[in-house]
């Protein structure tokens, strides 16, 4: 999490520039809804409704102007855990921090990630988000090591340079904030994964990745001329580029970037595993990070007092850097306390990822209810982050929620961060 906060802090000059500019511009038991047995004891299913046969409550979900309204209405009626049937699947929705952590952290081995087969083919079947169990834990350890404060400390000047180049390219132009943030996030992701030595491959990596991205949500028809076919060709080329980089890296020191972590000694991955996970991390990092940064621009523009406080915080550091002639350092980012609170509150209010899918690999008991094997389980992040019991006036953008002097344990445990 510290690495992600650093990553966002280093982009604040871009965010401030945007904000100032913007401100100026002014199945079976599932379908029957019955209960089941767990450990020889009859358990009820969670409360809720399953809707019409086959269709379930999908029409109600999509007729809502906002899916989060549908989920919030269900939560208010049935409580923090409830059943429904959407998108052809019986589901259990969980909307408390404790339940989300049960599914995603403490009992994660009981729930597997679920993605369409076409997504696995496109990104690579051995990527971290398609895994569970020991291999998933191993990958998490390698990724966490590469993005630990110790590993990224030396990358701060290079990331600052990327941010400054981005700012320079905007001079006297009207820009699309989200697209520019996506470009920035991709550049930093490539640096963090492959290091500065591999920058000769960056343009080809970018082009292949952008082609892959365009086909990600296309119909999975692998015929010449289709977006899916073009994406699969780009994925093959990405794999070849990564294989070439791996081969070159073996001839020299490993480095502290993600690739170095994947190749490190006893814990090293195979070349195919490295390629799948490097491409997967790029995909995971780009849009979510860009979305958070874009929402920061909006929230800063909408809240001039907060914008002023963040600007003053960075102006003080900038003056010191100008006098010393030194680039931004890790120690400087630790002083960006107001910036850190703005990032946390942006992540809470925007809740970029509204929910995620898991599937129960066996019958699971939770708080006296049965979650049947094969059912989908959806932790509802946005509903948790907007629960007034945890965050008073949840729609209000208020970074002071995260001030050390007033922060509550409830705030910390209710702001979910799943790395």
Characterize this entry briefly.
This protein has 419 residues and is of the alpha+beta class. The protein has helices at 2-9, 12-24, 29-32, 58-63, 67-78, 97-106, 117-123, 133-146, 149-152, 156-169, 177-194, 202-215, 227-249, 258-262, 271-302, 304-324, 330-334, 337-350, 381-385, 409-414, and strands at 36-38, 41-43, 81-86, 89-94, 111-113, 358-360, 364-366, 369-371, 376-379.
Write a structural description.
One of its GO terms (biological process) is abscisic acid metabolic process. One of its GO terms (molecular function) is heme binding. InterPro entries: Cyt_P450, Cyt_P450_E_grp-I, Cyt_P450_sf. Residues 1-17 form the signal peptide. By secondary structure, the chain is α+β, with helices and mostly antiparallel strands. The chain has one domain (2-26, 33-414): Cytochrome p450. It has 20 helices and nine strands. The strands form three sheets. A five-stranded mixed beta sheet has the order 3-4-9-6-5. A hairpin with a 2-residue loop joins strand 3 (81-86) and strand 4 (89-94). The longest helix is centred in the last third of the chain and has 32 residues, at 271-302. The model is unreliable at 18-23 and 25-34 (pLDDT under 50).
